[in-house]
Structure formats: C-alpha cells, structure tokens
Amino acid sequence: MVNYILLFSLCFFIAIPSYGLGISQGYEFGPGDSLSISVYQENDLAYSGQISQQGIVDFPLLGSVNLSGLTQKEAKSHLEKRLKDGYLVSPSVSIQVSSYRPFFIYGEVRNPGSYKYQPDITLEQVIALSGGLKDRASRKKWTIQRGIDKATFLAKYSTIILPGDVIKIEKSFF
After folding, report:
1. In CATH terms, are 24-99 and 103-171 the same topology?
2. Domain residues of the chain, as ranges?
3. Among the residues of the chain, which ranges form H helices?
4. Check: CATH 3.40.50.170 for 24-99?
5. Which of 25, 28, 44, 96 is the most buried (most CB within 10 A)?
6. Tens-binned pLDDT, residue by residue, of the chain (174 aa)
7. Which CATH class is domain 103-171?
8. What is the pTM of this model?
C-alpha cells in the first residue's frame, strides 16, 4: 500500500509541470517587454528599458543585442557568453521582467483592443475584461496567435493567455 502511495505521489508531482505553458517555464521575450538587466558587481553594465520592435536592446559594451525569441534562461546565457568574450572573466547576469507586452482581442467582443497582461489570466477572464461576447459571437470558435512564429490554435475558456497573444472571436452563423 505504501508503495502505491509513493508511486502515485511521484507520478502526480512529475505530471504537474506538463499541465500548461506557464509564463516562467517557456516564455519568450519579444518587442514591448520591459526588462531590467544587471551584471553582478558591475554597476556600469546595466540595462533598463523596452525591447525594440526589432527585438533589440542596447546593452553597455555589447551594443545591439537581439533578445527576441529567447527565454529568460537563454537570454542570460547569451549575454554571459558575449560578456566573457573579451570583457569579463566570469559574468553573472540577472534579468528581471519589469512589464510584459500587452495581449490583443478582437472580433465579436464588445470592447476589442489591447489589454495589460496579468499572470495566469484565462480566455474566459479576457472575454469578461473586453465587455463580454456580442450576441452573434461563436461560443466555440476562438483562435489565438502566439509567439514569434505566430502559431495559431483553437482555444477554450480555460486557455491561459500569454503576453503578445492575439485572440480572435469568430462570428457564429446560428
């Protein structure tokens, strides 16, 4: 019996991360995200600002650095590697997201537009934020464009919205 409980507990805790793409697990930086970047014990090597529309930040010593499409861990590693190349012996970079880019909703909602990202917000909550569905709105055909590659997929009420998502609420014919 104890073995079954241990096995169940182990399976449960292993499965938890796969329930959805959380903002901390695989979020990729993109234009509009505001970052604060610092290098440990190097006060002159700091950046605080927004990623440009081209995905670039102007970092001291390094100049223009493309961070678009990189996760926080990848961006940290990229900057540390560039700083090791002739500048510092063992740089330790810290990246904080000051604010995320907005998400957008359009189509058959009462108040389409851009909205400030809030962690763990669901499509149901976004629809409520945008004033609710119009009378002719589809109750099932909702699509989301996500990421740099603009991958499109069908969404449900419980779909977690990420910064930069573009949500389309289709019109229903019946």
Report:
1. no
2. 24-99, 103-171
3. 2-15, 23-26, 72-84, 123-129
4. no
5. 28
6. 434 433 333 333 333 332 334 444 578 999 999 999 999 999 999 999 999 999 999 999 899 999 999 999 999 999 999 999 888 899 999 999 999 999 999 999 999 999 999 989 999 999 999 999 999 998 888 999 998 788 899 999 999 999 999 999 999 876
7. alpha beta
8. 0.73
